[in-house]
Amino acid sequence: MMPRKGRRVAGVAAAGPTWASIVLMRNVKGWGGACVLVGLFGCTSGGGDAGTGAAGGTTTTSTSTGTGGSGAGGDATGGTGTGGNGTGGTGTGATGGAGGSAGAPSGAYFPAGAWMYEDVSQAAVRADSAAITQWLENNGSWGTGEIRIDYSIEVLQKTPQTTYQSFIETADFYAPDCDAVDVPVPPGGALEGETGYECVSDGDCHLIVVDNDLHRLFEMWRANIVGGTFYGGCLAAWDMTRVYGVEGRGEQCTSADAAGFPIAPLLFSADEVAAGEIAHAIRFILPNARMRGGWYSHPGTHAGGPSGPAPAPVYGSRWRLRANFDLASLPNDGARVVARALQRYGMALADGGNIALTAQSDRFTVAKWAGLLGTFDLASIQPTDFEVLDTGPAIQLTYDCVRSAY
Predict the structure, then answer these.
(1) Kind and range of the H or E element at 133?
(2) Which one is predicted more confidently, 232 or 31?
(3) What is the mean pLDDT of residues 365-385?
(4) Which burial class, exposed, middle or buried, applies to 228 when counting CB atoms under 10 A from its CB (0-12, 13-18, 19+)?
(5) Is the pLDDT of residue 22 over 50?
(6) What is the pLDDT of residue 12?
(7) How far lies 124's CA from each of 68, 72, 307, 320, in Å?
(8) Cα–Cα distance list, 198 to 9, 11, 53, 67 (Å)
(9) Averaged confidence pLDDT in the chain
(10) 3-state SS assignment for residue 151
(11) CA-only gyration radius of the chain, Å
């Protein structure tokens, strides 16, 4: 992510306040390419840095009670209802079809109703969608010229042996955007691109940790633990019991990802692909010069350092693979699973960088990427094979974060 512009809070040790007692300070601006510390999901950076997760961790799973639906095209398994209005049990399906909506998918981070689980296969398209996708195709296309997949992000999980640690805020911590609370640090874990918790490479060094007991998802950019001292950049502590509105954690507010999104819920895993379904939106990134400067759109709440002209894609926007895209043209079933998710749930423009799509590392998954899905297996998909969804007007970027309450 590109650095944000403006004042920063640096050199202040976090005292580990309770969730309710966090003081929101006015200060902000800027964003850089960071990696996050989040449970078992690891981090991905704009440049696709390699990441490793905690030893002995297991992928986080959580369930949500959802509204089941048996409407046309729906595949929710959390109960049935006529026309999709029956109340179901634990939702394990994707969003239902015309008849109603499903519960959150199995292993979801947030409850049913969270935007990344919304079926957008019938959603309205922006009037300038074709102009946006054609501009991107004519101006370098995806970051490396073709869709590639980054498998570097790990997600760690709090274990019984995990302790919460306070951290010293660095110049990469922005208030009020970031959360000054203690962070679980699982034994044997690692930052993105590192073998342990020390940020040796001076990269994004994301730390991502899931605490299912407290129902919190911790994602930190630029973490670094040296000689027992924990230094931290921007931390986003997500409440996994909450359905965040269009303003996310706050309008004009960043997170461990420049668009203000959570990272882990937008990663797709080898287990999902092997099972034949990805039931959520997918994270994607573009070079900053290929995103419109000074603007973002929902479901994003912030932008990093976009510098492209007006016709360029907008930070935070949501895209959908065309329904008539020829899935048979893809080289294997794994690629087709990802493509079907892009048709139904779409992808969200989360950060600046070159490797377009972000998957979760297979370090803690049962299925492995080898023989399932290769880095270039979606390379034939062009920008003009997508439609840009109408999620409301673009919002001018001011960096004046107004945080939402927990």
Answers:
(1) helix 129-138
(2) 232
(3) 97
(4) exposed
(5) no
(6) 33
(7) 24, 19, 27, 10
(8) 21, 18, 13, 44
(9) 79
(10) strand
(11) 20
Distance CA(196)–CA(39), nearest Å, equals 14
- pLDDT tens for 317-342 read 999 999 999 999 999 999 999 999 99
| Two structure tokens written together for 30 | 């800027």
* Beta strands across the sheet bearing 357-360: 149-153, 357-360, 282-286, 347-352, 318-321, 386-388
- Residue 191's pLDDT band (cuts 50, 70, 90): confident
392 pLDDT tier (thresholds 50, 70, 90): very high
Q: Where are the beta strands (DSSP E) in 86-213?
A: 149-153, 156-157, 163-165, 168-169, 183-185, 207-211
Distances (CA, A) of 315 to 35, 194, 309: 18, 28, 12
Burial class (CB within 10 angstroms; exposed 0-12, middle 13-18, buried 19+) of 56? middle
Whether 42 has a pLDDT exceeding 80, the answer reads: no
In the numeric block, the tokens 């510390």 are attached to 37
* pLDDT exceeds 70 at position 85: no
Cα 129 from Cα 132, distance rounded (Å): 5
> E strand or H helix at 341, and its extent?
helix 333-344
